[in-house]
Protein backbone atom coordinates (compact mmCIF):
# COMPACT_ATOMS: atom_id res chain seq x y z
CA UNK A 1 0.00 0.00 0.00
CA UNK A 2 1.31 3.42 -0.94
CA UNK A 3 1.99 5.74 2.00
CA UNK A 4 0.51 9.21 2.43
CA UNK A 5 3.92 10.86 1.99
CA UNK A 6 4.66 8.90 -1.20
CA UNK A 7 1.28 9.95 -2.57
CA UNK A 8 1.99 13.56 -1.66
CA UNK A 9 5.43 13.50 -3.32
CA UNK A 10 4.06 11.95 -6.51
CA UNK A 11 1.17 14.42 -6.84
CA UNK A 12 3.36 17.42 -5.94
CA UNK A 13 5.99 16.57 -8.57
CA UNK A 14 3.23 16.11 -11.15
CA UNK A 15 1.69 19.42 -10.15
CA UNK A 16 4.99 21.32 -10.44
CA UNK A 17 5.69 19.94 -13.93
CA UNK A 18 2.12 20.63 -15.07
CA UNK A 19 2.28 24.16 -13.65
CA UNK A 20 5.52 24.87 -15.50
CA UNK A 21 4.01 23.78 -18.83
CA UNK A 22 2.11 26.96 -19.80
CA UNK A 23 5.09 29.20 -18.98
CA UNK A 24 7.48 27.11 -21.07
CA UNK A 25 5.05 26.99 -24.00
CA UNK A 26 4.51 30.75 -23.98
CA UNK A 27 8.27 31.33 -23.74
CA UNK A 28 8.94 29.01 -26.70
CA UNK A 29 6.23 30.62 -28.81
CA UNK A 30 7.55 34.13 -28.11
CA UNK A 31 11.05 32.95 -29.01
CA UNK A 32 9.75 31.47 -32.28
CA UNK A 33 7.93 34.70 -33.13
CA UNK A 34 11.05 36.79 -32.47
CA UNK A 35 13.14 34.48 -34.65
CA UNK A 36 10.49 34.35 -37.38
CA UNK A 37 10.13 30.60 -36.91
CA UNK A 38 6.53 30.30 -35.74
CA UNK A 39 5.47 28.53 -38.95
CA UNK B 1 -25.98 14.98 -10.62
CA UNK B 2 -29.59 15.96 -9.93
CA UNK B 3 -29.18 19.73 -10.13
CA UNK B 4 -26.75 21.18 -12.69
CA UNK B 5 -24.44 23.66 -11.00
CA UNK B 6 -23.78 25.76 -14.07
CA UNK B 7 -26.83 27.71 -15.29
CA UNK B 8 -27.47 26.76 -18.88
CA UNK B 9 -27.48 30.43 -19.93
CA UNK B 10 -23.94 30.81 -18.56
CA UNK B 11 -22.85 27.55 -20.24
CA UNK B 12 -24.22 28.76 -23.58
CA UNK B 13 -22.38 32.05 -23.02
CA UNK B 14 -19.04 30.26 -22.44
CA UNK B 15 -19.62 28.06 -25.48
CA UNK B 16 -20.48 31.10 -27.61
CA UNK B 17 -17.43 33.12 -26.53
CA UNK B 18 -14.99 30.26 -27.14
CA UNK B 19 -16.65 29.22 -30.38
CA UNK B 20 -16.46 32.71 -31.87
CA UNK B 21 -12.85 32.98 -30.72
CA UNK B 22 -11.81 29.62 -32.22
CA UNK B 23 -13.51 30.34 -35.55
CA UNK B 24 -12.03 33.86 -35.84
CA UNK B 25 -8.58 32.57 -34.90
CA UNK B 26 -8.91 29.77 -37.46
CA UNK B 27 -9.93 32.23 -40.16
CA UNK B 28 -7.00 34.52 -39.34
CA UNK B 29 -4.44 31.70 -39.21
CA UNK B 30 -5.72 30.06 -42.35
CA UNK B 31 -6.02 33.23 -44.46
CA UNK B 32 -2.67 32.61 -46.19
CA UNK B 33 -3.22 28.94 -46.93
CA UNK B 34 -2.34 28.80 -50.62
CA UNK B 35 -1.18 25.25 -51.26
CA UNK B 36 -2.32 21.79 -50.24
CA UNK B 37 0.76 21.58 -48.00
CA UNK B 38 -0.35 24.81 -46.27
CA UNK B 39 -3.83 23.43 -45.66
CA UNK B 40 -3.01 19.84 -44.72
CA UNK B 41 0.45 20.25 -43.15
CA UNK B 42 0.60 23.91 -42.06
CA UNK B 43 3.34 24.60 -44.62
CA UNK B 44 5.70 21.93 -43.16
CA UNK B 45 7.63 24.47 -41.03
CA UNK B 46 5.85 24.54 -37.67
CA UNK B 47 8.16 25.96 -34.98
CA UNK B 48 9.11 24.43 -31.63
CA UNK B 49 6.60 26.26 -29.40
CA UNK B 50 3.53 25.46 -31.49
CA UNK B 51 4.83 21.92 -32.12
CA UNK B 52 5.03 21.11 -28.41
CA UNK B 53 1.64 22.68 -27.73
CA UNK B 54 -0.19 20.84 -30.49
CA UNK B 55 1.27 17.44 -29.57
CA UNK B 56 0.45 18.09 -25.93
CA UNK B 57 -3.08 19.45 -26.53
CA UNK B 58 -4.06 16.70 -28.93
CA UNK B 59 -3.04 14.03 -26.44
CA UNK B 60 -4.92 15.73 -23.59
CA UNK B 61 -8.43 14.70 -24.51
CA UNK B 62 -11.67 14.67 -22.62
CA UNK B 63 -10.65 11.10 -21.81
CA UNK B 64 -7.59 12.43 -19.97
CA UNK B 65 -9.62 14.88 -17.97
CA UNK B 66 -12.64 12.62 -17.40
CA UNK B 67 -11.53 8.99 -17.78
CA UNK B 68 -8.27 9.39 -15.83
CA UNK B 69 -10.23 10.44 -12.71
CA UNK B 70 -12.78 7.69 -13.43
CA UNK B 71 -10.08 5.01 -13.64
CA UNK B 72 -8.39 6.37 -10.53
CA UNK B 73 -11.69 6.16 -8.71
CA UNK B 74 -12.16 2.55 -9.89
CA UNK B 75 -8.57 1.21 -9.99
CA UNK B 76 -6.78 3.47 -7.53
CA UNK B 77 -3.16 4.64 -7.71
CA UNK B 78 -2.33 2.35 -10.63
CA UNK B 79 -5.28 3.75 -12.53
CA UNK B 80 -3.73 7.20 -12.61
CA UNK B 81 -0.15 6.00 -12.98
CA UNK B 82 -1.27 3.61 -15.73
CA UNK B 83 -3.08 6.40 -17.52
CA UNK B 84 -0.05 8.66 -17.27
CA UNK B 85 1.96 5.99 -19.09
CA UNK B 86 0.12 7.22 -22.16
CA UNK B 87 2.99 9.74 -22.24
CA UNK B 88 5.35 6.91 -23.19
CA UNK B 89 3.69 6.88 -26.62
CA UNK B 90 4.72 10.50 -27.20
CA UNK B 91 8.19 9.99 -25.74
CA UNK B 92 8.93 6.91 -27.86
CA UNK B 93 7.49 8.55 -30.95
CA UNK B 94 9.91 11.48 -30.58
CA UNK B 95 12.88 9.85 -32.35
CA UNK B 96 10.56 8.20 -34.86
CA UNK B 97 9.03 11.60 -35.75
CA UNK B 98 12.48 12.91 -36.56
CA UNK B 99 13.19 9.87 -38.69
CA UNK B 100 9.82 10.06 -40.48
CA UNK B 101 10.52 13.70 -41.44
CA UNK B 102 14.00 12.78 -42.66
CA UNK B 103 13.22 9.64 -44.67
CA UNK B 104 9.97 10.94 -46.18
CA UNK B 105 10.43 14.70 -46.67
CA UNK B 106 7.48 14.79 -49.10
CA UNK B 107 5.25 12.31 -47.22
CA UNK B 108 1.78 13.41 -46.17
CA UNK B 109 0.15 10.57 -44.22
CA UNK B 110 0.94 7.44 -42.24
CA UNK B 111 -0.80 5.59 -45.08
CA UNK B 112 1.89 6.82 -47.50
CA UNK B 113 4.52 5.10 -45.41
CA UNK B 114 2.63 1.81 -45.01
CA UNK B 115 1.88 1.64 -48.74
CA UNK B 116 5.44 2.34 -49.82
CA UNK B 117 7.06 0.24 -47.11
CA UNK B 118 4.77 -2.81 -46.86
CA UNK B 119 2.66 -2.77 -50.02
CA UNK B 120 -0.98 -2.29 -50.91
CA UNK B 121 -2.55 -5.16 -48.97
CA UNK B 122 -1.01 -4.05 -45.68
CA UNK B 123 -1.93 -0.47 -46.59
CA UNK B 124 -5.62 -1.38 -46.94
CA UNK B 125 -5.69 -3.34 -43.68
CA UNK B 126 -3.96 -0.40 -42.02
CA UNK B 127 -6.51 2.06 -43.42
CA UNK B 128 -9.36 0.00 -41.96
CA UNK B 129 -7.65 -0.05 -38.55
CA UNK B 130 -6.75 3.61 -38.63
CA UNK B 131 -10.10 4.91 -39.81
CA UNK B 132 -12.00 2.70 -37.36
CA UNK B 133 -9.80 4.00 -34.54
CA UNK B 134 -10.23 7.60 -35.66
CA UNK B 135 -14.00 7.23 -35.75
CA UNK B 136 -13.93 5.61 -32.29
CA UNK B 137 -11.89 8.52 -30.98
CA UNK B 138 -14.14 11.09 -32.63
CA UNK B 139 -17.30 9.45 -31.27
CA UNK B 140 -15.86 9.23 -27.76
CA UNK B 141 -15.01 12.94 -27.95
CA UNK B 142 -18.43 13.90 -29.26
CA UNK B 143 -20.15 11.80 -26.58
CA UNK B 144 -17.94 13.17 -23.84
CA UNK B 145 -18.84 16.70 -24.91
CA UNK B 146 -22.55 16.00 -24.80
CA UNK B 147 -22.38 14.15 -21.47
CA UNK B 148 -20.28 16.79 -19.76
CA UNK B 149 -22.24 19.77 -21.00
CA UNK B 150 -25.47 18.06 -19.93
CA UNK B 151 -24.12 17.07 -16.51
CA UNK B 152 -22.76 20.50 -15.71
CA UNK B 153 -25.31 22.79 -17.27
CA UNK B 154 -28.45 20.82 -17.98
CA UNK B 155 -28.12 21.52 -21.71
CA UNK B 156 -29.52 18.34 -23.33
CA UNK B 157 -26.92 15.80 -24.50
CA UNK B 158 -27.91 16.20 -28.14
CA UNK B 159 -27.40 19.98 -28.13
CA UNK B 160 -24.04 19.86 -26.31
CA UNK B 161 -22.69 17.08 -28.49
CA UNK B 162 -23.90 18.86 -31.63
CA UNK B 163 -22.37 22.21 -30.76
CA UNK B 164 -18.88 20.84 -30.00
CA UNK B 165 -18.78 18.82 -33.23
CA UNK B 166 -20.11 21.68 -35.36
CA UNK B 167 -17.69 24.28 -33.97
CA UNK B 168 -14.62 22.06 -34.37
CA UNK B 169 -15.66 21.05 -37.89
CA UNK B 170 -16.20 24.70 -38.83
CA UNK B 171 -12.86 26.01 -37.70
CA UNK B 172 -10.94 23.03 -39.07
CA UNK B 173 -12.57 23.60 -42.46
CA UNK B 174 -11.70 27.31 -42.33
CA UNK B 175 -8.06 27.08 -41.40
CA UNK B 176 -6.80 23.53 -41.96
CA UNK B 177 -3.88 22.33 -39.85
CA UNK B 178 -2.69 25.88 -39.09
CA UNK B 179 -6.02 26.58 -37.39
CA UNK B 180 -5.84 23.28 -35.54
CA UNK B 181 -2.31 24.00 -34.26
CA UNK B 182 -3.00 27.65 -33.41
CA UNK B 183 -6.12 26.84 -31.40
CA UNK B 184 -4.29 23.90 -29.80
CA UNK B 185 -1.78 26.35 -28.35
CA UNK B 186 -4.44 28.42 -26.59
CA UNK B 187 -6.32 25.28 -25.53
CA UNK B 188 -3.19 23.72 -23.99
CA UNK B 189 -2.67 26.76 -21.81
CA UNK B 190 -6.32 26.70 -20.69
CA UNK B 191 -6.25 22.96 -19.91
CA UNK B 192 -3.02 23.02 -17.91
CA UNK B 193 -3.88 26.15 -15.94
CA UNK B 194 -7.37 24.78 -15.22
CA UNK B 195 -6.25 21.31 -14.07
CA UNK B 196 -3.49 22.73 -11.88
CA UNK B 197 -5.86 25.34 -10.36
CA UNK B 198 -8.44 22.66 -9.55
CA UNK B 199 -5.88 20.40 -7.88
CA UNK B 200 -4.47 23.29 -5.83
CA UNK B 201 -7.97 24.25 -4.73
CA UNK B 202 -8.58 20.67 -3.55
CA UNK B 203 -5.21 20.54 -1.76
CA UNK B 204 -6.21 23.74 -0.03
CA UNK B 205 -9.38 22.06 1.28
CA UNK B 206 -7.92 18.80 2.54
CA UNK B 207 -4.54 17.30 3.45
CA UNK B 208 -2.90 14.24 1.91
CA UNK B 209 -3.04 12.58 5.33
CA UNK B 210 -6.82 12.93 5.44
CA UNK B 211 -7.22 11.68 1.86
CA UNK B 212 -4.96 8.71 2.58
CA UNK B 213 -6.53 7.73 5.90
CA UNK B 214 -10.06 7.92 4.51
CA UNK B 215 -9.10 5.77 1.51
CA UNK B 216 -7.29 3.28 3.75
CA UNK B 217 -10.42 3.03 5.85
CA UNK B 218 -13.10 2.88 3.15
CA UNK B 219 -11.46 1.72 -0.06
CA UNK B 220 -7.98 0.36 0.76
CA UNK B 221 -7.75 -1.45 -2.58
CA UNK B 222 -7.30 1.93 -4.28
CA UNK B 223 -3.99 2.38 -2.47
CA UNK B 224 -2.85 -1.14 -3.23
CA UNK B 225 0.17 -1.59 -5.51
CA UNK B 226 -0.76 -5.17 -6.32
CA UNK B 227 -4.37 -4.90 -7.46
CA UNK B 228 -4.20 -7.41 -10.39
CA UNK B 229 -6.67 -5.62 -12.66
CA UNK B 230 -4.79 -2.36 -12.13
CA UNK B 231 -1.43 -3.86 -13.02
CA UNK B 232 -2.84 -5.37 -16.20
CA UNK B 233 -4.44 -2.02 -16.94
CA UNK B 234 -1.08 -0.32 -16.49
CA UNK B 235 0.67 -2.47 -19.10
CA UNK B 236 -2.36 -2.49 -21.35
CA UNK B 237 -2.51 1.28 -21.33
CA UNK B 238 1.18 1.48 -22.09
CA UNK B 239 0.75 -0.56 -25.29
CA UNK B 240 -2.53 1.14 -26.11
CA UNK B 241 -0.95 4.59 -25.91
CA UNK B 242 2.06 3.52 -27.95
CA UNK B 243 -0.21 1.92 -30.56
CA UNK B 244 -2.39 5.01 -30.77
CA UNK B 245 0.52 7.37 -31.31
CA UNK B 246 2.64 5.15 -33.55
CA UNK B 247 -0.07 4.35 -36.08
CA UNK B 248 -2.33 7.38 -36.10
CA UNK B 249 -2.09 9.97 -38.81
CA UNK B 250 -2.75 12.59 -36.14
CA UNK B 251 0.89 12.17 -35.06
CA UNK B 252 2.36 11.39 -38.46
CA UNK B 253 0.83 14.51 -40.02
CA UNK B 254 2.51 16.55 -37.27
CA UNK B 255 5.82 14.79 -37.88
CA UNK B 256 5.52 15.89 -41.53
CA UNK B 257 4.33 19.38 -40.53
CA UNK B 258 7.05 20.24 -38.00
CA UNK B 259 10.13 22.07 -39.30
CA UNK B 260 13.19 19.84 -39.84
CA UNK B 261 14.94 19.08 -36.54
CA UNK B 262 11.89 19.94 -34.42
CA UNK B 263 10.00 16.62 -34.20
CA UNK B 264 12.21 14.82 -31.71
CA UNK B 265 12.43 17.54 -29.07
CA UNK B 266 8.82 18.66 -29.58
CA UNK B 267 7.35 15.19 -28.96
CA UNK B 268 9.73 14.58 -26.04
CA UNK B 269 8.78 17.83 -24.30
CA UNK B 270 5.07 17.26 -25.04
CA UNK B 271 5.35 13.82 -23.42
CA UNK B 272 7.04 15.30 -20.37
CA UNK B 273 4.29 17.90 -19.93
CA UNK B 274 1.51 15.42 -20.62
CA UNK B 275 2.73 12.82 -18.11
CA UNK B 276 1.62 14.69 -14.96
CA UNK B 277 -1.84 15.65 -16.24
CA UNK B 278 -3.57 12.28 -15.57
CA UNK B 279 -1.90 12.13 -12.15
CA UNK B 280 -3.14 15.59 -11.21
CA UNK B 281 -6.60 14.86 -12.67
CA UNK B 282 -6.66 11.44 -10.98
CA UNK B 283 -5.77 12.99 -7.64
CA UNK B 284 -9.01 14.97 -7.83
CA UNK B 285 -10.91 11.65 -7.82
CA UNK B 286 -8.88 10.17 -4.96
CA UNK B 287 -10.01 13.03 -2.77
CA UNK B 288 -13.71 12.21 -3.29
CA UNK B 289 -14.23 9.89 -0.28
CA UNK B 290 -12.42 12.24 2.12
CA UNK B 291 -14.49 15.18 0.94
CA UNK B 292 -17.71 13.14 1.27
CA UNK B 293 -18.66 13.64 -2.35
CA UNK B 294 -21.20 11.10 -3.49
CA UNK B 295 -20.22 9.64 -6.88
CA UNK B 296 -23.09 7.66 -8.42
CA UNK B 297 -21.43 7.58 -11.85
CA UNK B 298 -17.63 7.06 -11.83
CA UNK B 299 -17.21 8.63 -15.28
CA UNK B 300 -18.54 11.88 -13.81
CA UNK B 301 -16.26 11.96 -10.78
CA UNK B 302 -14.19 14.99 -11.90
CA UNK B 303 -17.09 17.34 -12.69
CA UNK B 304 -18.95 16.10 -9.60
CA UNK B 305 -15.96 16.87 -7.40
CA UNK B 306 -15.40 20.30 -8.91
CA UNK B 307 -19.00 21.40 -8.79
CA UNK B 308 -19.75 19.95 -5.35
CA UNK B 309 -16.64 21.42 -3.76
CA UNK B 310 -16.32 24.77 -5.48
CA UNK B 311 -19.79 25.52 -6.78
CA UNK B 312 -19.99 27.85 -9.75
CA UNK B 313 -16.22 28.47 -9.95
CA UNK B 314 -15.48 24.74 -10.03
CA UNK B 315 -18.17 24.08 -12.59
CA UNK B 316 -16.89 26.87 -14.87
CA UNK B 317 -13.32 25.63 -14.49
CA UNK B 318 -14.17 22.04 -15.41
CA UNK B 319 -16.41 23.23 -18.21
CA UNK B 320 -13.61 25.30 -19.77
CA UNK B 321 -10.99 22.54 -19.27
CA UNK B 322 -13.08 19.86 -20.91
CA UNK B 323 -14.37 22.14 -23.66
CA UNK B 324 -10.75 23.01 -24.54
CA UNK B 325 -9.63 19.37 -24.24
CA UNK B 326 -12.46 18.19 -26.46
CA UNK B 327 -11.85 20.84 -29.10
CA UNK B 328 -8.08 20.39 -29.14
CA UNK B 329 -8.41 16.69 -29.91
CA UNK B 330 -11.54 16.72 -32.04
CA UNK B 331 -10.08 19.24 -34.50
CA UNK B 332 -6.81 17.28 -34.76
CA UNK B 333 -8.51 13.94 -35.39
CA UNK B 334 -10.87 15.54 -37.91
CA UNK B 335 -7.99 17.09 -39.85
CA UNK B 336 -5.75 14.01 -39.74
CA UNK B 337 -8.54 11.60 -40.66
CA UNK B 338 -9.55 13.86 -43.50
CA UNK B 339 -5.94 13.83 -44.77
CA UNK B 340 -5.94 10.04 -44.65
CA UNK B 341 -9.25 9.76 -46.48
CA UNK B 342 -8.31 12.33 -49.13
CA UNK B 343 -4.76 11.14 -49.76
CA UNK B 344 -5.08 7.39 -49.26
CA UNK B 345 -8.66 6.63 -50.24
CA UNK B 346 -9.82 9.40 -52.59
CA UNK B 347 -6.52 9.93 -54.40
CA UNK B 348 -4.99 6.53 -53.66
CA UNK B 349 -7.95 4.48 -54.86
CA UNK B 350 -10.27 6.58 -57.02
CA UNK B 351 -8.62 9.75 -58.37
CA UNK B 352 -4.97 8.93 -58.85
CA UNK B 353 -4.35 11.97 -61.06
CA UNK B 354 -6.31 14.46 -58.97
CA UNK B 355 -4.87 17.99 -59.05
CA UNK B 356 -3.85 19.91 -55.94
CA UNK B 357 -6.92 22.14 -56.28
CA UNK B 358 -9.22 19.14 -56.50
CA UNK B 359 -7.61 17.57 -53.41
CA UNK B 360 -7.99 20.84 -51.51
CA UNK B 361 -11.73 20.87 -52.28
CA UNK B 362 -11.97 17.18 -51.41
CA UNK B 363 -10.29 17.90 -48.04
CA UNK B 364 -12.94 20.49 -47.16
CA UNK B 365 -15.80 18.17 -48.09
CA UNK B 366 -14.18 15.25 -46.29
CA UNK B 367 -13.87 17.23 -43.04
CA UNK B 368 -17.56 18.17 -43.32
CA UNK B 369 -18.60 14.57 -44.04
CA UNK B 370 -16.50 13.13 -41.19
CA UNK B 371 -18.02 15.73 -38.87
CA UNK B 372 -21.49 14.65 -39.97
CA UNK B 373 -20.71 10.93 -39.56
CA UNK B 374 -19.28 11.59 -36.09
CA UNK B 375 -22.44 13.44 -35.15
CA UNK B 376 -24.70 10.65 -36.47
CA UNK B 377 -22.78 7.95 -34.57
CA UNK B 378 -22.67 10.01 -31.38
CA UNK B 379 -26.45 10.51 -31.24
CA UNK B 380 -27.03 7.13 -29.52
CA UNK B 381 -24.81 6.86 -26.43
CA UNK B 382 -23.20 3.57 -27.40
CA UNK B 383 -20.98 2.62 -24.44
CA UNK B 384 -19.24 4.13 -21.45
CA UNK B 385 -16.38 6.39 -22.46
CA UNK B 386 -13.70 4.07 -21.11
CA UNK B 387 -15.06 0.97 -22.86
CA UNK B 388 -15.44 2.72 -26.17
CA UNK B 389 -11.90 3.99 -26.00
CA UNK B 390 -10.39 0.65 -25.06
CA UNK B 391 -12.33 -1.28 -27.69
CA UNK B 392 -10.01 0.28 -30.26
CA UNK B 393 -6.93 -0.82 -28.28
CA UNK B 394 -6.87 -4.22 -29.98
CA UNK B 395 -6.74 -2.52 -33.38
CA UNK B 396 -4.07 0.08 -32.81
CA UNK B 397 -1.65 -2.04 -30.78
CA UNK B 398 -1.43 -4.52 -33.67
CA UNK B 399 0.21 -1.81 -35.80
CA UNK B 400 3.06 -1.02 -33.37
CA UNK B 401 5.58 -3.59 -34.60
CA UNK B 402 4.97 -3.28 -38.34
CA UNK B 403 5.56 0.47 -37.95
CA UNK B 404 8.62 0.22 -35.71
CA UNK B 405 10.30 -2.47 -37.78
CA UNK B 406 9.25 -0.75 -41.00
CA UNK B 407 10.81 2.53 -39.89
CA UNK B 408 14.00 1.21 -38.32
CA UNK B 409 14.89 -1.93 -40.27
CA UNK B 410 15.11 -2.98 -43.88
CA UNK B 411 13.75 -6.40 -42.93
CA UNK B 412 10.35 -8.09 -43.18
CA UNK B 413 7.66 -8.48 -45.81
CA UNK B 414 4.22 -7.06 -46.45
CA UNK B 415 2.68 -10.45 -45.73
CA UNK B 416 4.21 -10.50 -42.26
CA UNK B 417 3.07 -6.95 -41.56
CA UNK B 418 -0.47 -7.74 -42.74
CA UNK B 419 -0.62 -10.90 -40.63
CA UNK B 420 0.69 -9.04 -37.59
CA UNK B 421 -2.13 -6.51 -37.89
CA UNK B 422 -4.90 -9.00 -38.65
CA UNK B 423 -3.96 -11.62 -36.02
CA UNK B 424 -3.08 -9.00 -33.42
CA UNK B 425 -6.44 -7.28 -33.85
CA UNK B 426 -8.37 -10.58 -33.91
CA UNK B 427 -6.83 -12.05 -30.78
CA UNK B 428 -6.86 -8.68 -29.05
CA UNK B 429 -10.62 -8.46 -29.63
CA UNK B 430 -11.03 -12.04 -28.39
CA UNK B 431 -9.22 -11.06 -25.17
CA UNK B 432 -11.37 -7.92 -24.91
CA UNK B 433 -14.56 -9.96 -24.88
CA UNK B 434 -13.29 -13.02 -22.98
CA UNK B 435 -11.16 -11.31 -20.31
CA UNK B 436 -11.75 -7.57 -20.23
CA UNK B 437 -10.99 -4.21 -21.81
CA UNK B 438 -7.78 -3.91 -19.83
CA UNK B 439 -5.97 -6.67 -21.76
CA UNK B 440 -7.04 -6.05 -25.38
CA UNK B 441 -4.09 -3.84 -26.40
CA UNK B 442 -1.64 -5.97 -24.43
CA UNK B 443 -2.65 -9.20 -26.18
CA UNK B 444 -2.76 -7.49 -29.57
CA UNK B 445 0.76 -6.04 -29.18
CA UNK B 446 2.20 -9.38 -28.04
CA UNK B 447 0.64 -11.31 -30.94
CA UNK B 448 1.80 -8.65 -33.40
CA UNK B 449 5.32 -8.88 -31.97
CA UNK B 450 5.41 -12.68 -32.26
CA UNK B 451 4.33 -12.51 -35.90
CA UNK B 452 6.96 -9.86 -36.71
CA UNK B 453 9.74 -11.62 -34.78
CA UNK B 454 10.91 -13.75 -37.73
CA UNK B 455 11.08 -10.55 -39.81
CA UNK B 456 13.56 -9.05 -37.35
CA UNK B 457 15.77 -12.09 -37.74
CA UNK B 458 15.53 -12.09 -41.54
CA UNK B 459 17.65 -10.48 -44.25
CA UNK B 460 17.85 -6.80 -45.16
CA UNK B 461 15.86 -6.32 -48.31
CA UNK B 462 14.11 -2.96 -48.37
CA UNK B 463 15.47 0.02 -50.29
CA UNK B 464 14.85 3.24 -48.33
CA UNK B 465 14.71 5.24 -51.54
CA UNK B 466 11.45 3.49 -52.38
CA UNK B 467 9.85 5.72 -49.75
CA UNK B 468 10.38 8.72 -52.03
CA UNK B 469 9.28 7.72 -55.53
CA UNK B 470 8.72 11.37 -56.48
CA UNK B 471 12.40 12.16 -55.98
CA UNK B 472 13.38 9.97 -58.89
CA UNK B 473 16.36 8.92 -56.83
CA UNK B 474 16.67 5.64 -58.65
CA UNK B 475 17.98 7.12 -61.88
CA UNK B 476 21.45 5.76 -61.25
CA UNK B 477 20.26 2.34 -60.19
CA UNK B 478 17.91 2.18 -63.19
CA UNK B 479 20.94 2.52 -65.43
CA UNK B 480 22.93 0.11 -63.36
CA UNK B 481 20.50 -2.15 -61.49
CA UNK B 482 21.71 -3.65 -58.24
CA UNK B 483 24.91 -1.68 -58.38
CA UNK B 484 24.07 1.43 -56.40
CA UNK B 485 25.49 1.23 -52.89
CA UNK B 486 23.62 4.42 -51.94
CA UNK B 487 20.27 2.64 -52.23
CA UNK B 488 20.63 0.73 -49.02
CA UNK B 489 22.36 3.39 -46.99
CA UNK B 490 20.67 4.89 -43.99
CA UNK B 491 19.00 8.17 -44.86
CA UNK B 492 20.67 11.30 -43.50
CA UNK B 493 19.03 12.27 -40.22
Any low-confidence stretches of chain B, pLDDT <50, length ≥5?
473-487
Give the N-terminus to C-terminus distance of chain A in angstroms.
49 Å
Please count the beta strands of chain A (DSSP E, at least 2 residues each): 0
pLDDT < 50 stretches of chain A = none
Strand content of chain B: under 5%
What is the chains' assembly state?
Answer: heterodimer
Q: What's the overall average pLDDT of chain B, rounded?
A: 87
SSE order of chain B in H/E notation?
HHHHHHHHHHHHHHHHHHHHHH
What is the distance, rounded to the nearest whole angstrom, between the alpha carbons of the first and last residues of chain B? 54 Å
Give the biggest sheet of chain A.
Answer: none
| Cα shape of chain A | rod-shaped
The shape of chain B, in one word, is: globular
Count of helical regions of chain A: 1
- Biggest sheet character of chain B: none
* Main interface by residue count: A-B, 30 and 44 residues
Approximate strand percentage of chain A: under 5%
The total of helices of chain B stands at 22
Cα-based radius of gyration of chain B, to the nearest Å = 23 Å
Structure class of chain B: mainly alpha
Over all CA atoms, what is the radius of gyration of chain A? Answer: 17 Å
SSE order of chain A, one letter for each helix or strand: H
